[in-house]
Amino acid sequence: MKQNEKRRIRNRYFRGRARALVRDARTAIESGDLDQAREATIKAASALDKAAVKGILHENNASRRKGRLMQQLADLEKNLAE
Fold first, then answer.
1. Which of 29, 64, 69, 73 is the most exposed place for a label (fewest CB within 10 A)?
2. CB-CB neighbours of 62 under 10 Å
3. What are the residues whose beta carbons fall under 8 Å from the beta carbon of 7, sequence distance 6 or more?
């Protein structure tokens, strides 16, 4: 039970951090600021990778979330280039 509690707390930290950074990245993308969006997306991708390596998120789940974020960033870059 003690191990489960320690792991639950650790897992919540990494999962919550990944969620917060993904939310920040989406907000930055929606705001239209390309530099801020790129930086936030890189941070979110890193947090998702860390969570996947530690087994907190499934690797495919993290990859899917990263892919969606990167696609949104690419769409922003495409729209700003036009």
1. 64
2. 20
3. none
Residue indicated by tokens 């696609």 = 71
1, two tokens: 């039970």
Distance between CA atoms of residues 49 and 55, nearest Å: 10
Nearest 10 degrees: Cα torsion 70, 27, 82, 65: 20
> Largest Cα–Cα distance of the chain, in whole Å?
57
Cα separation, 11 vs 72, in Å, equals 27
User: Which positions ≥6 away from 17 have C-beta within 8 Å?
Assistant: 47, 51
pTM of the model: 0.90
- Residue ranges and CATH numbers for the domains of the chain are 2-81 (1.20.58.110)
